[in-house]
Amino acid sequence: MTKIRKICILGGGTAGWMTAAALSNKYKALDLEIELVESDQIGTIGVGEATLPHIRFFNQALGIDEREFMKATHATFKLGIEFCDWGKLGDHYVHPFGDYGIPLHGLDFHHLWLRLKARELVPRLDDYSFPVVAAEKGKFQLPGPDANQIGSNFGYAYQFDSSLYAKFLRAYCERRGVVRTEGKVTGAEREAQTGDIRHIILEDGRQIAADMFVDCSGFRGVLIEQTLETGYDDWSHWLPCNRAVAVPSEARGKLLPYTRATARTAGWQWRIPLQHRTGNGHVYWSEYISDDEATAQLMSTLEGPALADPKQLYFKTGRRRKFWNQNVVSIGLSGGFLEPLESTSIHLIQEGVTALIELFPDAEIDPLDRDEYNDRMGLNFDRVRDFLLLHYVATQRDDSDMWRYFQNMALPQSLQDKIEAWLTRGYILKYEFGVFLPPSWIAVMLGQNLHPKGYDPRADRYAEDNLQSELRSIQLQSMRAVEATPDQERFLNQYGANSEAARLVASSARTQ
Ligand SMILES: Cc1cc2nc3c(=O)[nH]c(=O)nc-3n(C[C@H](O)[C@H](O)[C@H](O)COP(=O)(O)OP(=O)(O)OC[C@H]3O[C@@H](n4cnc5c(N)ncnc54)[C@H](O)[C@@H]3O)c2cc1C
After folding, report:
1. pLDDT value at position 289?
2. Which atom of ligand 1 has the smallest separation from the CA of 344?
């Protein structure tokens, strides 16, 4: 049995450099050689600015200083996503990164709220969520040490410039001995007996051999698909949006600590505030809107002047049949893509890298490890798919062909079960793998007007007026915590996470 001595990563986008950073950090003491091949001529996809809270733990595991990272990537804090016009035109809600209220009488808070809500004795559930109210007011602070306090039981993520993140990680990797090779891969040579890839071939004839390859070549899937022909499960019938147009614009107004996703007639539009500019995009289903119309809609709703020409992107939602095939692991867009609503793609990269490290072969690749990797990543993708699909089907909208398409859709059984349990008894089915926890599901279901008929019957044990005053006191704690919280911009300055260059660009734009 030969030890895995060399890994070759193909691709230097977010996926490639995240993989290289994690492997170089984890295996620094071991004798593992890491070479990353990328092509400046091909470039990266250049989008992917909004993240989920788990990325903080990824950065922390690498020993990255939060302030340095935020300065280098012109990052802002993200408390959640605001959804506009999803349930009905005119609706809006925030999907927060954090719990609603605090657990009371051994019950999840929302059951007590549902009981009182049935008698119209309480305000919206959002008023018991620090991240919702802080986001609505443009405020931010780090969670305190006591996670049982209402102003501390939340998570946060970042909104950053993805090309700067890749650059930041590249410097990190090169300090740890990762070798970067510039060049375009045009082919690969496979072992006759095993079918594994022996070496990849560059345009100029150079060959790079390795024991394992990580395919981070984006939608092309150069090794996992072009070479190994692994196959792709097309999920367009569930998630039919297949194009996007993206454009950065000058920053305007208050620096908001959340991403906005506004539903449109044939897709939806994102707005992501960074320190120095705003990222915008329109994701759409080409069946029902032309590229020109989608671009015109996007450009007409920008809050400030565009900073570049709009960029067109094409994709097919779905996932690779095997994420790990032979001696190739696909991480990032080469493994699959489920459209950017809810900012899950970078998170799935993190899941892929984490699982690879956990199942990393010390000698020959064990097929059982490979199967476990594929099962685990498959579950992660399935569950993200269900959560994304929920946004399109939990709606009363029927004002366009796209919304009417979703009304008649046969849902995956797993999502059907989840909706059923919520509607009958206010219960969120939990599972081990899958990024979104119950508060996320509650946010979308309630935010899009799926109101449960029942709740946990144990909530009826308590006297109504006592319960009402307990909930009122929690709401007041939340309000006070938000009042004591600074605006995000002030916090960034106090904290020392503001990039001077970004500040200069943004401050002149924001005052216009
Ligand atoms: C419209 C849209 C919006 C998105 N928004 C978000 C978001 O808000 N949040 C989020 O988490 N994710 C988002 N994503 C996904 C996110 O952009 C990606 O997950 C992330 O950028 C990782 O991409 P990647 O590294 O896999 O691929 P890429 O960035 O495409 O990188 C591929 C790399 O492979 C190299 N390469 C390719 N072929 C070859 C070759 N033959 N030889 C040598 N090198 C090669 C390229 O040069 C490049 O370095 C979005 C995606 C889309 C399409």
Report:
1. 98
2. 11
| Ligand 1 atom nearest residue 186's Cα | 41
**Cα(183) to centroid(ligand 1), Å:** 17
Confidence category of residue 249, pLDDT binned at 50, 70, 90 = very high
Task: Give the percent of the chain with pLDDT over 70.
Answer: 98
Cα-based distances in Å from 262 to 89, 288, 298, 300, 360? 10, 17, 11, 14, 41
Phi then psi for 354, rounded to 5 degrees? Answer: -65, -45
Q: Which residues are catalytic?
A: 78
Q: Is 43 in the pocket of ligand 1 (CB under 6 A)?
A: yes
Instruction: Please give the Cα distance from 154 to 151 (Å, whole number).
Output: 7
pTM: 0.96
> What is the Rg, in whole angstroms, of the alpha carbon atoms belonging to the chain?
23
Residue 272 to residue 157: CA distance in whole angstroms: 12
Cα–Cα dist 368/382, whole Å: 21
Q: Which of 10, 37, 47 to mutate to test the pocket of ligand 1 (most atoms within 8 A of CB)?
A: 47
pLDDT digits (tens, 9 = 90+) for 427-471: 998 877 778 999 999 999 999 999 999 999 999 999 999 999 999
